Amino acid sequence: MWRLYQFPLCPFSRKLRLLMSEKSIRFSLERENPWEMRDEFFLMNPTGRTPVIQHAEKDIVLIDSRAICEYFEETVGKNPMINGTAARRAEIRRLVALFDENFYGDVTAPLLMERMTKRIVLREAPDSRNLRAAMRLADEHLDYIDYLIDNRPWLAGSTMSLADLAAAAQLSVADYLGGINWSGHEQARGWYSTFKSRPSFQPLLAERMEGVQPPKHYSDINA
Amino acid sequence: MWRLYQFPLCPFSRKLRLLMSEKSIRFSLERENPWEMRDEFFLMNPTGRTPVIQHAEKDIVLIDSRAICEYFEETVGKNPMINGTAARRAEIRRLVALFDENFYGDVTAPLLMERMTKRIVLREAPDSRNLRAAMRLADEHLDYIDYLIDNRPWLAGSTMSLADLAAAAQLSVADYLGGINWSGHEQARGWYSTFKSRPSFQPLLAERMEGVQPPKHYSDINA
Fold this sequence. Notes:
2 copies of one chain form a homodimer. By secondary structure, chain A is an alpha+beta fold. Chain A contains 8 helices and 4 strands; from the N terminus they run E-H-E-H-E-E-H-H-H-H-H-H. Chain A has a 4-stranded mixed β-sheet, with helices on one face. In chain A, helix 1 (about 10-20) links the parallel strand 1 (about 1-5) and strand 2 (about 25-30). The radius of gyration of chain A is 17 Å and the shape is globular. Chains A and B meet through strand 4, helix 3 and helix 4 of A and strand 4, helix 3 and helix 4 of B. Chains A, B: This is Glutathione S-transferase family protein. Chains A, B: Pfam families: GST_C, GST_N_2.
C-alpha cells in the first residue's frame, strides 16, 4: 500500500489525497513535519518538502505533488482528472499551476507562516499586516474563481478536474486558517460547498492541526 | 506559427525555447517585460508571467511553462522529453520541479532581482549579502547535479529529458548573471558544456539583455 508523508495543513498533500480518494487508490498517512528537517526525510527527498509517497513493496518513492498526480493519472484509469484534448489538458495544468504557485504564494504560504508556523514553531505573534495582505489577495483569487464559475460548471470546463482539486486543497487550508471571507463570492462559495460534500473531502474536514483551531464554518458542509 | 512572449533572461521561457528547438517546432519571439505589467498581457495571462505562447491561426493561447511543455510533448512526437515508464516520467517531472521551483527560488530569482531588476527597473545597487547567499545555494545545487551525473549520463537517466532542459535553462540565466562558480564541479561542468554545444542552445548564448553583460566564459562553448 502507498504511504503518504504529510501534515494536516499541507495544501499539496491535500490535493494528492483528494486525487487518490477520487481514484479509489488506497493509502495510509504518515505524519511528517517538514520544519523539523528530519535527516531520514531529507534522504528520501532532497528538497525536504511534503508530500512524498512511498510504496515499499514496489520499491517506489515519488516526490513533488504535481509529478505524483501525473503518475497516478497515468497508472490508474478510474476518474481521469487530466483529460480531454491537448488544449483542455493544458488549461487544467495552467490552473493547477495558478493555485499551486500563485494562490499558494499569495495566500496559503503567508497564512501558514502567520497562523501555524509562528504559533507552533517560532512562538511569535502573527503580523496583522501580512494577514491583511494575504486576505486581500485571497479576495482577488476568489474573484477569478467567480469569473470561471460564471462561465463553466467546473474550473477547467464541463467536468471536474485536477484544477478543482488543486484549488479546493489550497482554499481548504486558507479557510481553516481563517483567511477566506466568502461574502460577495456566491459562485466560488457554491462551487466550494459542492466540493465539501464529496466523500473525498470528509477526511480533510474532520482533521485538526494541533494548536491551531479552524473557524466554525470550516467543516460545516452547509456553510 | 507560434509566437512566444518572453524576455532574454526568463529561465522558464528558455526551457520552452530549448524544448521547441529540440522538437523542431517553429516559433517567433515576442518581447514581453513582465515588470511593465502591460494591460494586454494581463488579459492574455492573469498571472502576468512569461512565457505565454499564442497560435493566432489556431486561436490557441497556452500559459505556464510546464503546461506548455506537456502540451508540446503530447502533440509533437519528435524527440520525446517526458518519456519511458511512469516511474521514469515521475522522476523527470520531479527534477523539473526541483529546478523550476527550488533552484529558481534559491538562485535564479535572487540573481535576477539583484543584477537585472535593480539595475534596469529599480535603479538600485545590488545587495551583496543576497548575492552571496544565492551563490552559496547555487553551489549546493551544483553538488546535487554532480551527484546525479556521477550515477547517470543525463539528469533523469540514460537519455536527455525535460529535466536537463529545465536545469540548463536555470543554470544559463544564473551563469549569465555571474552567479555560478564552476570550479570543483567537474561533472556538472561537463554535462553543461555538452549542452552548450547543442544547436538548440546557440540562440540563447548569443542573446544579450540590454544593460546587463554576462561574464566572458558565459558563451564560450569550450569554457
